[in-house]
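User: structure tokens for this one?
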Amino acid sequence: MRLSFKDSCFALAIAGISLVTRPAAAQNKAAQIDAYLQQAHTAGLFNGNVLVTDHNKAVIKEAIGYADTSRQVMLTTAYRFHIGSIAKEFDAVGIMLLQEQGKLNLNDKVSKFFPNLPAWAEKVSVKNLLQYTSGIPEVKWKTVHSDADNWKDLQALTTLDFEPGSTYAYKNSNTFLRRRIIEKVSGLSFNDFVVRYLLKPAGIKNGIMDPTEKDALVARSFNDDFKQDGLTVPISGWTCLNLEDFYKWGQCINKFCIINPASTREIITPFAPGKQAGLGGGSMAGNQVITHVHDGVTMRYQALLKTNAPKGRTIILLTNQRQNNVYEIAEAIEAILDGKPYQALQKPVAK
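Assistant:
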């Protein structure tokens, strides 16, 4: 069972995607993408939801496979997925929004907001947190089961891994502190801040924070043996989106619906080539976003957002049975859109 563009007449009116009769070439591309994805699912290499646009027109919006391990509930495009590290975009954008409002400065030190933290907080700036150049060690995932646990570790921390601003290390402690700073400055919980100042302005209606067992239409992640994961994560503040709302978020970044071009440039430009920034990765020319690419993983969820603004192209992949192949899938989809050769997904050869 699957739901595709061809069957559902998919439209994202808010983003200006038009519903027009597609020419034969576009229909053929949609059919090729559908066949590619169905083959991948049959081979056990993809279970999830996909959205593709090109020239600002919908090509395919599709749900493929199971919503949970019962194998009785099929995914629909209304299902929401954890998006892993892509959720870090929301705290990065939140920080820049607060700077635009004059409520903080990227050069502020962490100690300004949390004077009771050890001396290292006097050296780490907000910008260091955004660029992953703080030197703060990684969250101790084996012993941290809550925000309170992580706070205790930060309060006990005496030595940074390196001098702030001197090098790069992608650690979730940076994300944790960005979220706590937003709470301190805004006077809201991070989740309430995201809903009020980021999701609603972006037109996102179905997004939720830190989903629980009580939330409907949340895809559950599972491994190849159909062992299902829980939904609890050690630290809080993770956004869960469906395809349509994920698309709106990508368009919001491209069109500066929350923060201005200068702020966007600050969090799309990495500390060094090939490293992660607040928005993952991408490029700008003047005041225009050219590309925006970000992937995320948590438990057995994996997500990819890939936009090319000049081409009006967006590829969104949401999977709840991670196979670490979302970039390979996106490359094949782009090849189909560009009329280039591509290969079917194949299982890696066991060594």
